[in-house]
Structures are given as structure tokens and as C-alpha cells.
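Preliminary data (for renewal application), zinc ion complex.
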Amino acid sequence: MSGVTEDMVSGVTEDMVSGVAGGAIKDTASGAAGSTGGAACGEAGLDARLKAFVGRTAATAGVGKDPVNLPMIRHWCEAVGDTNPAYTGDAAIAPPTMLQAWTMGGYSGHTGRFGAHDELFALLDGAGYAAVVATDCEQEYLRPLRPGDEITFDSVIEDVSDRKTTKLGAGYFVTTRMDVRAGDELAGTHRFRILKYAPAAPAARKPASKGSNESGDSEASRGAVPRRPRPVINRDNAGFWAGVEERRLLIQRCGGCGRLRFPWLPGCNACGGQEWDTVEASGAGTVFSYVVMHHPPFPAFDPPYAVAVVELAEGVRMVSDVVGVGHDEVRVGMPVQLEFQRVDEELVLPVFRATEPGPPDTGPRAEAGQAPGVAAG
Ligand SMILES: [Zn+2]
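Predicted structure:
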């Protein structure tokens, strides 16, 4: 991912970032990691070169492509479901969390940027730290932004960490600070932190698989087919997985108001009741929505593949696989039937089999004269 620009990285929202950072990043002291043999000298030289970027300007006198405006505010509020009245009407202000939105260059990018950021990334890429993940973001709001405010911004590389070892791999945290102004007045600051890292080998990231590799033979673990992720079974959802063991798909039913809910939760969203029992799903459902995953690749999944939200006949929805049709044949509204698939010696998952072909594809491929079925008739 050597071509990642600041804006692409910054496109990750704060919520996504905190979700990632909460689990994936384990920040440990770097001293021990860099202490093995000759590599330490090279890393020390690199560290010094990286530190030289601290304080360098990444952008100066950038200009927001549009003044603060109501249509963007409205789209933002709709997208995040924020109905705060402060963001509508004649006296509207922009949601403070939109701070960075006013500075984004879009697909065409910004002009007049300094090269420090690209140079830093090129240096890290060249040293093998080619992967990138956004880790966290901090914003500080100094004054509200209002429709009509003209936005300018400067950004600086504020910090490059020492080399850190994380669960993803070893790398460097790079912090960029952007100062956002309305006219000449500082309206807020936006700090964005990413990890540029050398991905750890998959075998090092996976817990050792039980049974197959008790001697710790790395040869064997490298050759092993990666397994699907294990479900996280806890007090709140153990009943669901016990049902799957018995080849039953169980839906929770509130003891207070009778409402069905899925996935399993300790309380009822409708009435707050904590009593519940279960009903067994009939197994009939329809595809409510789906995506076809092409990227990024995950171990044990072979892209492209379809991931569907299936609406059960009982009315609740669940995410699952659709089997029996190709990834490009899944359609919204397609009827499906529950079955249980043994994934490996430990894992059984509920999946949904397409029971009849979906509606014909009327998209561009059919127009290109490749409509299957037409030629066959
Ligand atoms: Zn209830």
C-alpha cells in the first residue's frame, strides 16, 4: 500500500479507528524488539532518519474546496443519524466532528502540498514497513464553524514514534497534526495517528491450532490451511451456540413484550426486559442485502465471496453465507433455506442455501451479450 495518501488514510472515520485500535494494536516498548544482532544498527540509523521528519510541514495554507455549507452538513447528519437541531435552520452550526470534512481534497486531491509526508512514507516503505493502519484520531474544537466560513489549514508531522512491536507487526506510529482555521481564526485541531508496519507472518499472528501442531513445528503451521475465525462464545450468546450444536437456530424472545431479537443480547431493546426464552427458526428466509467481498483478503476466506444479511421468516435478520450459488448470483429477495455446515472438526455454522435462482441479472454484463440462459433457449 505504498500509494496511500494522507487523505485516503484520513478517510477512516473516528468510530472505525477506535474500533480498530481498541483490539488490534498492542503497543509495547520497542527496546527489546530491536535488540537482535545486526538488525539493531540498521534500525537505529533508520530511527534517526525518521526522527528528522518531526516538525516538518506536510501542508501549508491549504484551502477547503468549499466553504462550510448546509448541504454537506445535512448529508453528514443524515449519514450518522444526528438530529440535533443545532445543525439545521438559519442559525445552524456544523457538527464539530465534521472538522476534517472541510479540509478533504476529494479524489482530485489538493495542490500545493509539501513532500515531507510522501518522503516519510517512501522511506518507511523502502525499509519494509509498507503496510498502514489508522490507529486513532483526536480533535479539539475551539470555535463553531458556520455556513459561509472559508476554511484554511496547515499540517505538520508532529511525531514519529520509536520502533514498536504490535500484534500486526513491528512498525512506527506517525502522528500528523492539522490546524483548521476559519479565516484567520483557529477553529480546531485534528491529530491523526497511523501505524506503518511490516506485517507479521500469519503464523505468528494466529494462535497455535490445537492438536495439529503440538510440537510447535513451524513447518507444519506454515503449511496448514488457515481456519475460519472461532466465534466468541460468552454468557450472553452461549445458548445460541448450544442450539447450533443441536442443529437448531434459536431466536431470543422477550419475556416482557414477546419481541424476537437477534443477535442475542442480555436485554430487550423494546421494553428493557431481561427475561427471555427462545423460539426455533423455521429455517426459511430471504436475502435482505448482501455484499461481495473482493478485498481485503482474510485468512480462510477465498475472495470473491458473498456475505448476506438474511431476513428470517420470523422477521429477524442475521449475517451469514449463502451457499449453492456463485457469489455473483446472490440477489436481494432470493429465497434461502437454513442448513448447518461443518466447517472443520470443531466448528459448525448456520448457512443459507439458495432454493431457487434469483431474478435475472439485468446489469451491464447481460447487455454485453453474455446473458446465460438466453442462448440456451
Ligand atoms: Zn421486551
